[in-house]
Amino acid sequence: MNPVTPEPAIQDAIEWALLNGFSLKTSPESATHCAFSLAPTLIDEARFSHLRQSVPVLAKLIHAVSEDHDYLQEVMAPIAGADPFFTNLLNLHKHIHFGQQKAFRQPMLFMRTDFMDDAEVGPRVIEFNGIAAGMGPFGQRAHELHDYLQKQWPSAFQHWSPVDHLELIKNPAIELLSEGVAATARQVREESGESGQPVFLMVVQADEDNVYDQHLLEQGLQKLGIRTVRRTFRELHDQLASGENHRLLLEGIGSIDAVYLRAGYQYSDFVAHDLEEARCCQALSQTRAFMEQHNVAINATVSQQLATSKRVQMLLTSMSAEELTRFGLTLPEAREAKESLGVMLPVDETSAEWFADKPAEHWVLKNQGEGGGHCIFGDDILPKLKSFSSDDYQAWSLMRRLHPAHRQRPALLVRRGEAVKVDDLISEIGLFTIHFNGQPMTHHNGDGNGYAGYLIRSKPSTVSEGGVHSGMGAADSLAIVPGKA
């Protein structure tokens, strides 16, 4: 990667990002722009169309898995001794669905499915994001930035584009995500017999920096007449109550119709230092369970979080198309889902010996963690496998590493005001879907299948962690070559 002397187009792009909320918070009174690519990534139009049609099938699969509570208890039980966080989730799931109180929550599957487009086998699923499935609004802002640069700075845009002539793929993620959530919130309020403005609750982390992506979604909902509120788990612990007809009440607000968790994927989200240390995590975890005992649309339910875990993903990849039909897919749908899933293998006492003579660059070792920093690559894999005890095996899996072709021309990434030329840029493709009780909640270009926009994250091929927020990735957009199917 080589630093590039800033030019007017780059500075204008930075200011556009700051002006339009395409930013990360750096302190209570300041922000920096989100890292971005100066020009888009190419994709074959037919390939993108296929991905857009396949993600609703994957959402249908995940929804069915998440509502098969006996299955989740059975397949997640083996990791109970190896991963304390998922042990807690599994206990919460048992309390919610096998306890004395009925779970009245209604599942709103707000999911981002991440793909890598391998140079040999094509697009394959990297992971399912069922909780804190964010960055859709930033995906739209990246597209809008590229649209702005193409018109305002055509020479610089073309210089850093992958080809001379391209057509941007529209990305109305804010509008589609807002449409799906708003329709869900209205339906819950209407079916409860209540009138008035529907209310959307976003559960957030305290003092986090990735707030503008969240606020962009809130603004989209507010334009559709939805009232939005933000609370941490600690705040909710003291502010939630039960209303008539199993409605969830928030102090000072009233009935809540839809809940979206941007927190809850790590233990620190449930820590409250002002509560007794021995029970603080348990107390805030029970706050999450309390929400699920009420008539409210929720993403992510505990069962959705379990269903989108790496362990369940590994088990689904090992099934045949015929076996996948147990989750309500037709055989053609199951074959389509099977085609999208990559290769994942369980880890056991034979894995280190098996891996010893395999090319390390062809595999990645994953645990159950969400976000960046939970994968082991290359020469670090074998020592890690050798270090495992029998209690560790079930929490890990080996995934065949995907190797997309890098951009043929050099690309330009801009991070914290510095422009850097990258000669080997590769991209990860995330597609959003929204379903409520298994039914699609969006319409796009005549399709009412739940598709809700995309997020592209690009990075140098030599970098392992490609997250925009937690890695070395940059927000990007997609383009096609006009007239080339």
Automatic annotation (TrEMBL):
Pathway this chain belongs to: Sulfur metabolism; glutathione biosynthesis; glutathione from L-cysteine and L-glutamate: step 2/2
Any one of the GO CC terms: cytosol
Gene Ontology MF terms in the entry: ATP binding; glutathione binding; glutathione synthase activity; metal ion binding
Cofactor list: Mg(2+)
Highest taxon of the lineage: Bacteria
Pfam families named among the record's database cross-references: GSH_synth_ATP, GSH_synthase
Name the record gives this protein: glutathione synthase
